[in-house]
Amino acid sequence: MRRHRLLNVLATATAMIAGIVMLAGLLSDPGSDWRTLSALVLRLVAVTIAITVLIGILNLLGVHLGRFVRAERGWPYSVVILLVAVGVIVLRILDRAEIWSGALEGEQLSPRVFEAVQVSIESALAALVVFFLVFAAARLMRRSVSVWNVLFTAAVVVALLGWLPVRELDVLADVREWIVRVPVSAGARGILLGVALGTVTVGVRVLLGQDRSLRD
Amino acid sequence: MTDSELIISLLTIAFSATLIGAVIARRVPVRLRRIPAYDAMPEIAADAVESGHRVHFSLGSSAVGEQSTISALTSSEVVYQLADRLAISPHPPLVTLSHPATLPLAQDTLRRAYEARLRAEAFRTTQAAWYPLGMRSLAFAAGAAAHSADIDAASSVLLGRFGTELAFFGENAVRHDQVFVAHSDNPSGQAVAYAQSETPLLGEELYAGPAYLSRRPLHLGTAVAMDVLRWTVIMAILFTALQAAL
To answer: Which of B194, B207, B231 has the most A C-beta neighbours within 10 Å, making it the best mutation to test the interface with A?
Structure first.
C-alpha cells in the first residue's frame, strides 16, 4: 500500500511538472530556457511513444494467441493475424539483411507487400462506409421523425444529389455548396470550440494533479 | 490581446471556475442537465452484469501524447466508472483502441477498476486490445467491431477520437443487436455517431462524463467551469460581432 501511494505521488508529480514545463514553454519566447526544456520533454515523449508501438505489437500477438489457445469464436481469423504478423516481421528482417538475389536484388519486399494488401483492403472497406452511412440515415428516420432528423436526412440527400454531374441538378450543387460553407462549417466550428473548452477545463484538472488516473 | 494573454486568461477563468464549482458542489447539490447517454451507461453496466454479457468499449485513435490526450484521459475515466461496476462480473469488459500509446492507459484503467473491487486477480492485460493503427484506420474499425461481435458483447460504448470508420461499429451494433453509445471529438466522426446512435454524446459532453457518473465535487466543478467558459466565449463572440457591426 505504501509503495502504491509513493508511485501515485511520483506519477502525479511527474504529470504536473511536465504539464507546467510545457505550458511555460508555450508561453515563452523562442530560444528561452523554458522553450528548450519543453522541447526536451517532447523528444522524450516521442521516444516513449515509439516504444509503445512494440508494446502494442506484443499485445496484438497476446490477444490473438489467447483467442487461438482458448478456441474462442473467430479463432481462425486470429490464426491468420498471427501468421501474417510473423510473416511480415520475418520479411522485414530479410529485407534489412539484404538477402534477396537475382531479379529481387536490392528490393524491399515488405513495403510492396504492405501496399499491395493494405491499400486494397482499405479501399474496399472505404467503399462500404458510404453504404453504411446511407443505411444509418435511413434508420435515423425510421427511429424517430423529429425536426432534426428530417433536417439531417434532407441535408444528406441534397449533398448526395448535388454531387451528381447532371446539369438539371446544378441548383442542388449550389445548395450543397452553401450548406457546406455556412451551416456545416458553423456547426463543425461549434463542436470543435466545445471540445477545446472541455480540453482546457480537464487540462486544468490534470495540471492540478487531480486526474484519477494519476491518483489511484 | 496577444495569444499568451488569451491563454493565461482562459486558464485563469477555467482554474477559478473549477475551484469555485467544486466548493459549491461540496455545499449544495448541483443539478446537471439530462444527457440520455449518461442515463444509459449505468443501465448498460447493470444489464451486462445481470445477463452475463460483456461490454465493448473503444477509445478509437485517441492518443496519449498527442492532440487527443485529454480525450483519451476523459474517455478512460468514463470507462473506469463503468468498469468499476462491471468488475464484479465474471465476464470482463473489452477495450479496443488504435493508438499504442493509449494501450497502457486502457490497461491501467481496467486494473484500477478491478483493484477497487478487490478483484485484482481477475484482471488480464489482454482485456485491452490494440488494433493498428492511428486515425481513420478502417482495419482497426473492422477488426475491433468483429472482435466485439465474437465476444457477444451486449453493448458498444465508443468514446474519444473516431472518423467515419465509426460507421463500422454502428453497423456491427445494429446487426448484433447491441446498445450503441458513440462519441467523437472529430466532426466527421461526430456526424456518424449522431446518425447511428440513439444516445450519442455531442462534442464537449464527453468531458462532463466524470461529473455525471461519479458526482465528485472536483468533476462537478469541471462541468461548471465548462459552462462558465462556454458563456464567456459566447459573450466575447457577440460583443466582437456587435462591435464590428456598429
So the answer is: B207
